[in-house]
Structure formats: structure tokens, C-alpha cells
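tool_call: predict_structure(chain=1)
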Amino acid sequence: MASNESTAFAVNEQSSHACDAIIIGAGFSGLYQLHKLRDELGLDVVVLEKGDGIGGTWFWNRYPGARCDSESYYYCYSFNKEIEQEWSWSERYPEHPEIRKYLNFVADKLDLKRDIRLNTEVTSAAFDDDANLWTVQTKNGQFFSAPFLITAVGCLSTANVPDIKGLASFKGQWYHTGLWPHEGVDFSGKRVGQIGTGSTGIQTAPVIAEQAKHLTVFQRTANYSIPARNGPVTADDIKHTRDNYDEIWRLARAGTNGHPFTISTRSALSVSNAERQEIYEKAWERGGLRFRASFSDVLQNVEANLTASDFLRDKIKTVVKNPAIAEMLTPRDHGFATKRPPIDSGYFETFNRDNVLLVDLKAEPIVEVTANGIRTTKQDYALDIIVFATGFDALTGPLVNLNISGSQGIKLKDAWAAGPRTYLGLQSPKFPNLFTITGPGSPSVLCNMPIAIEQHVDWITNCIRDMRANGQKRIEANTDSTEKWVAHVNEAADATLLPMASSSWYLGANVPGKPRVFMPYAGGLARYTSICDDVAQSGYRGFALS
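tool_result:
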């Protein structure tokens, strides 16, 4: 095979497989992309999955309390009404086993598993300019080649384990929530230290506290959280979802965040204090992410945001009995929802328990991990187990770690050294025929993920269909259109309060040395979809086709 020397592989024909498209990842994205390309376009497609089961993010995230934060009736696919009519969720916010069960149900229903290679970890991918072909190498020495390469690796799939001095000397066990043992962890009788209080930490702390002898929570940044008010899905709930299927998904696609509810058109500053308090109280009692929709300008206006932030700060004081602990748990450095807004099941109540201790790492930073626990600048904490709820190298990490080399051997990690450069979050210059589902520069993590995934997969599928109909074999984002899109992504973010949270993983701030760039598209799903559709209808403006 003709290639630049820097990207050439010595391919063993016995271990090589040629097809029309390669998909990396077998979660929500990979399963739907396989279905669309194989069953609608009739392509020969293979999915490469490093896990020994399907589920993507939900295959790996099995930590205690792990569940989705979108409601189950719309945290699912919308493309197949028959699947929706057959499947019934058990909880308003399902736990990870039920989400995996759902994805396996879909995979079986559509007969997807026959084209999924499990236990197949991608170690590199390289583009051959002369052959117009991607070649992917796996850890077990196999090679796969195809004109099209599609990453379906998720936005939150690369665990961020902090580099803390002395971790190797720790005599107990340590775990990262994103790489949780499938057999689970027994906390009974154990002294547990949890580092991190973002969405994951907020979910896992109450469960660990119930099981462990003692839990010490090491908090880097205090967070807001809304109660989930989780509960069983009733027969009436299921009937309502099935009867209103079309309207639910119409609403979801028309909205900002892919949720099937509308954001209020009222400003938080346009009503009296008493009325505003009543609206927030009702939203608090209902629980969940809909709290953000109480007013139109909570993420656009500093004063409006302050009304929501102050309401939630007061709730922390109401729930947490010890005033000093309540103050430690109260966010003061960012406004509500400028970072990912968690929802919880008894998080703040956990700090009323006798077996739970909160350590403020701003007041006493961690110095090192010792053989017997964690040492801060003030004291030693004896621990048997350390849990890192420290999140992910989000959005870019899963892609950069694939070791991708594009046209003329350019490495993706080098092309993105100053931050990700994508056009529509779908492609990057110098990486022809490489599509990134929910890549940086698309709504992705600011949305209900399944519907954002469907929009991307549908666009990619239609693009490949159009290329084949027109006899085109190569598509690549133009540098100029990419730079304009990156600027627009920044403009969209700056029109909100999102960039104000300097410690947010939306900016990559949780990973040392990572460029501080706002990565997701904050202009809303409906607006983004309209832009993507317009680009396609104009003959794929901003892309070079040949």
C-alpha cells in the first residue's frame, strides 16, 4: 500500500480486514452509526470496541450511584418508534445496569452485534493519501482499512487520574470512578477517601457513606446540585410517553439542550421576589435539570443567575445541619449552571451523617498519598480505599488517545496542541474522511446526549450517501471554515455565562497542562442543527470534496 513512511504499516494480510467504514466505539453513537451505514446505505461496516461488552460510557462507568441525569423517557433513541413502544424504563433516572440492558436490547433488536468486534482496542489510525484509505491498528495486532473512519468514543471516556505524589506507595486499594471494577467494591468496614465533588462525586458519596465505616470527602470545588427526586416509572408515565412520542421528540429537537421541555420566556428579574421564590421552590420540588428552565436568562445575565445561585445556596444551609460544613459546601467561585449542573439523591444530606467528614482542599491542599492514607498540609487521614471522582480528559482526550495521523502524517495531538480545531465538531483540516461524532465544537455535553448523537450520525450518514451518489471519495474540512467555526464557538460561549467558571472541565481546567479553550458549542441544539443542515444543502460549504 502506498503511503508516507511516517504513517506506513507493515500489514499482515491474514490479520487485515478491508471494509467501507470503520467505527470506533460501541456505545449510543457507535450502535446508531452502524445501523445507519449498514442497514440504510448497505455498507460493509465494522465497529471496534475495546471493552468486552457494548455500552460505551456506560460500559465503564459502574461506580456506586452511577445513573444518567436526563430523564429516562428521553435518555434513549428516538429514531425507531417500535423500539420505544416495546421498551419500558423502571426509574425516572435509570442506573447504569439498566442503560446497558437497554443498549443491548437495541443491539439485539437491530442485529448489530455481528459487526461489533469486542476486546479490540485501537492503538493507532493513519490516513494514506495515495490510496485515500484509513488503516487502523489494534492492540491485538489486527489491521482494519476503510475509506471512512468514524469515532464514536464519547466525550467522557478518558479517565483523569491526578498525578499525586506517593500514590504508588499506598497499601490500600484505589479506584477511578470511570474505570470501576465490574465485580464492584466492598466498602463495608472500610475507611474511604473520595477525591472530587463534581457530578460523579455527588452521585457516589451518598452510596459509599451508607456502606463504609467512614467516608472522608476531599473537596476541591464546592458545587451546586438539584435533587433528582428519582422514583419508579409508573404505567401512566409509560402510556403518556408512548402516546406522545412524536411531540416529545419534536420538543427535544426544537430546544436548546435537547430536552423535551421549554425554557421559560420570562426574565428572572421581571417578577417580584415572592413570585420568583415560588417558581424556584416548585422547580426544586420537581427536581432535575428542568430547574434551569425556570427563567430565560439564568445563563445569560449575571444578576438573573445570582437569583438562582442564591436560592440554591440557601437550600444548602437548610439541608446541612452544621453551619460550618454548610458554608464549606456552598459554591462562591462560580454561578449556578456555569459548570455542569449535577443532580443528586441525598448528597447534601450525606454530610449530616456521623461517619462522614468533609475536607476543604482550598484550606488544606493534599501534599501526598502515604502508605496509610492521604496527607494534607494540616494532617494525615488514615484510609483503606481511595476513590478518585476526578472526572475525565473531556471531549479531546478520547480522540487524541487514539493516536490518529492524518494527511501527510500530521498527528491529531499536534493539530490540536493549542486546543481543538474542528468544523462543526464533525471534521478537522488535514484529516480527510474522519468524522468525529459529538466532537469538540458541537453541542455534545451541553445537550441530552442521545439526541445530539442522532443529529450527528444522521448528518454523517447523509454526507456519505451524497458523496457516493456524486462519485466523490474524499471530504475534508477547509482551514478557513474551521477557523471561522472555532471563532463562532467562542462567540456562542461568550454570549453566555459559561466561560466564567474558570475551573470547569468545559474549558479543560481539570487536566493539568491542557489548553484552556471552551470546547462545546453553546448556541443550542436547534440552532446548530439548522447550521449543519444549511451547510449540507449548500453542497457542503466549508468542506473540500473530490
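agent: Residues 1-13 have pLDDT under 50 and may be disordered. Proceeding to next step.
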